Amino acid sequence: MEKLYSMAETLDTSETTREVTFQHSCTGCGSLLKFKPGTHHLACGHCGAENEIEGSAEPFVIEELDFEKFIQEGLEKDEKEIISSVSCTSCGAFTTLKPNISSDNCPFCDTSLIISNGTTCSVHKPQYILPFFIDNKKAVESYSKWVKGLWWAPSDLRRFSNKTDKLNGIYTPYWTYDADTTSDYTGQRGDDYNVNESYTSTENGKSVTKTRSVKKTRWTSVSGNHSRAFDDILVIASHSLPKSKANKLCPWDTENLAVFNEKYLSGFRTETYQVDVKEGLGTAKTIMHDEIEQAIKSQIGGDQQRIYTCNTTYKDIKFKHILLPIWISAFKYKNKVYRFLINGRTGQVQGERPYSWMKISSAVFVGLLILGILLYVLDVFK
After folding, report:
1. How, if at all, do strands 94-96 and 65-66 pair?
2. Tens digits of per-residue pLDDT, 295-332?
3. Non-local CB neighbours of 104 within 8 Å, separated by 6+ positions
4. Angle at Cα 83 formed by Cα 170 and Cα 75, nearest 5°?
5. Domain spans of the chain, in order of start
6. Burial class (CB in 10 A: 0-12, 13-18, 19+), 352
7. From the CA atom positions of the chain, what is the Rg in Å?
């Protein structure tokens, strides 16, 4: 079992921690068990035996942590796990080392890792996990379908899309935030109206007076208050993935979260947070602020709105640390790495893509050739 993570924070490993192991043996034949996507079981690839993950069928209530209390009291009490890792010299991602290996590749960019540079630290445990639902085969099908739909893609990319060993299932860290907000604002409401204006133009050498309708805006000063409760604002806690693409993997069915159990990680990689809970809250507040401004504009009404001040108070802030499933692949083309992300629940694909300028140039040449032939034919038959 491999695990990816970032060393964004160096934590004191002398604190109370729990050694993490992710290898589980089959009670029937002794082979290693792996989590089976779409279930709550560990499956043996050798004898086919399945073992249900303890507690996965028991009902539970998702509990969130009080942010202020956690910052003041929880850092020392929070349970940690010890992780040995190595940094990728190409993309900077940190990969947890699996036992007894002498070489490995970074799942984010496919660069060879220098195992001798490995280090150890401790990190905070996730509280909940959204298990993989689609397996490698279905992920490859989604990926291949996406690649085939790309215009001007290099032929190498299409061949690469059929290589199942190039897909890595990675549990990616996220924070979710709840908050009750109250915003006091000032601004202006703009109501559009039309007036007729006279103007002079010249027609046939003569000056002519005409009228036209002109839109104007009547502005009125406004102020008010807007309250809103936010629930589960999702913030990715990783710098290893292209954020713009990762954010488009939504929606996530977080109503199907499971209590974190290391057995879900068996057979997959896992990255730990590079964005800590404080930094994550800053991102969450930015998301909330944008939504608050849109709500205020709707509250102001009219045809146009201006917001001059917006002072928001955040209360009862709560959070939780979760892992979400993403299949990723890295494709190198002309010395540049392109990454593709697949939602491990729905199969939705987002990715960076290369272009084949040879195909584009050929298409342009053929287009110009056809245009030239058409012009020639038209000229001949004039």
Report:
1. unpaired
2. 999 999 999 999 999 999 999 999 999 999 999 987 77
3. 2, 86, 95, 97, 98, 112, 113, 115
4. 100
5. 3-175+236-274+321-351, 188-221
6. middle
7. 28
